[in-house]
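Run log // design_07
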């Protein structure tokens, strides 16, 4: 745990550009596909963060030849055409959901392999049963649990994918279905996965990554069944990782509350990531995004003219961004009910409960439901609490629960010049938790303040 970081407010409208890191979701999917393909794949614009380092380290432990150049943001992986070189390994997945799920499905490929997997204490609480049950139903793996059943830690004894059908409960995380969509086709025979009602955006992302590595187009039938033919993935040679649009949400929110113009390069008109739709949420408040030459130009002409009044917003398909919106809710002037987010109770932390706690500390009226969060403003209460802390020689502080999205979301709130003196009024506890997906977030934020 590191010292709290006071956030210096912005005092001028934005007029600059921001270089975003590569997408974690795309980088970790591409690493798995590169390992499954035949030959070398060079990933450009790759993310280097805790989660991607965990995936890269696991592939090296499993015997894959990988070369990473963090300065150049490139990773080269020599794939083995569906073969895993090491038959035994111990792998620690930290609290990386993509690594945990993707690697578990990946390891089931290697019939006869025995692998021991564990994670951080928080990862031991996160949902895995939908994936483990599907692998068992496919007879692709059997498991010996060393703690709570169907959770980390466990030993996986791989049997390979030899066809069959399985029900996949991906209600807690679409990563469970994506893990199987990536790995199962590399087996010996066709596999059918039944997973009705899964959240679409990240599954669509998985489909588009698979196609980039030579897999045929697939879509679910009317009953939510995916039929996956046995597939030999092919290296595309070079694959460019799209910038992280979950990370973009913080700078979209910053532009909304601060005004001015911000350019985000390397993002086109039809990005892969569903979190691009966060733009639609903020357009209600005057945010505009224009696209030209593979660059987003983000603008908000008059933040003081933000539309107010009660809103009800379904964040189910863009749930990583609900924290961004909830954190700036005190500045938006009206109440909001954010729903469709029940699954976020089982992510890095219980995100609904954590957000309710932190907003309540700031003087907002917050109501929790299983699947929703309602936030109402008490006029002037946030300013009053910030002033009281200032007069006592203190500063309001946000707890982050080892969750990067709390740190980055509330840093945007703290960037607003609430006390109109340019001095910090909000601090972030454990800012280093951003290392999960955006290690230099606070340096980037500071560079925009000085631009």
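design_07 sequence
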């Amino acid at each position: 745990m590191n010292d709290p970081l006071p956030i210096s407010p912005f005092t001028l409208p934005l007029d600059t550009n921001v270089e975003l890191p590569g997408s974690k979701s795309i980088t970790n999917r591409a690493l798995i596909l590169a390992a499954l393909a035949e030959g070398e794949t060079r990933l450009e614009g790759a993310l280097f963060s805790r989660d991607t380092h965990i995936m890269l380290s696991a592939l090296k432990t499993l015997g894959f030849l990988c070369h990473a150049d963090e300065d150049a943001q490139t990773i080269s992986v020599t794939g083995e055409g569906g073969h895993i070189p090491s038959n035994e390994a111990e792998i620690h997945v930290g609290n990386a959901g993509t690594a945990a799920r993707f690697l578990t499905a990946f390891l089931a490929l290697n019939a006869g392999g025995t692998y021991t997997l564990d994670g951080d204490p928080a990862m031991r609480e996160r949902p895995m049963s939908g994936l483990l049950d599907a692998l068992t139903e496919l007879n692709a793996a059997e498991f010996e649990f060393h703690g709570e059943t169907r959770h980390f830690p466990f030993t996986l004894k791989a049997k390979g994918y030899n066809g069959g059908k399985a029900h996949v409960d991906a209600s807690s995380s679409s990563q469970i279905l994506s893990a199987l969509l990536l790995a199962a086709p590399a087996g010996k025979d066709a596999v059918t996965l039944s997973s009705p009602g899964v959240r679409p955006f990240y599954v669509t992302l998985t489909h588009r990554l698979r196609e980039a590595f030579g897999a045929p187009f697939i879509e679910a039938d009317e009953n939510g069944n995916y039929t996956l033919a046995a597939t030999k993935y092919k290296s595309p040679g070079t694959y460019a990782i799209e910038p992280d649009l979950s990370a973009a949400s913080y700078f979209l929110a910053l532009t909304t509350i601060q005004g001015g113009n911000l350019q985000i390069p390397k993002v086109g008109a039809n990005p892969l990531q569903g979190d691009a739709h966060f733009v639609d949420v903020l357009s209600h408040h005057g945010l505009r995004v224009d696209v030209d030459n593979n660059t987003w130009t983000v603008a908000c002409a008059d933040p003081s003219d933000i539309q107010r009044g009660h809103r009800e917003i379904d964040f189910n398909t863009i749930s990583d961004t609900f924290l961004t919106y909830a954190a700036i809710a005190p500045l938006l002037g009206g109440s909001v009910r954010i729903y469709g987010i029940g699954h976020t109770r089982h992510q890095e932390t219980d995100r609904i409960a954590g957000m309710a706690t932190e907003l309540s500390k700031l003087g907002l009226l917050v109501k929790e439901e299983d699947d929703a969060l309602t936030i109402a403003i008490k006029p002037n209460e946030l300013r009053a609490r910030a002033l009281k802390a200032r007069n006592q020689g203190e500063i309001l502080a946000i707890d982050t629960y080892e969750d990067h999205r709390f740190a980055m979301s509330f840093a945007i709130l703290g960037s607003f010049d609430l006390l109109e003196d340019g001095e910090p009024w909000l601090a972030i506890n454990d800012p280093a938790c951003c290392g999960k997906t955006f290690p230099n977030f606070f340096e980037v934020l500071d560079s925009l303040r000085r631009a």
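The first strand starts at residue 5 and ends at 6.
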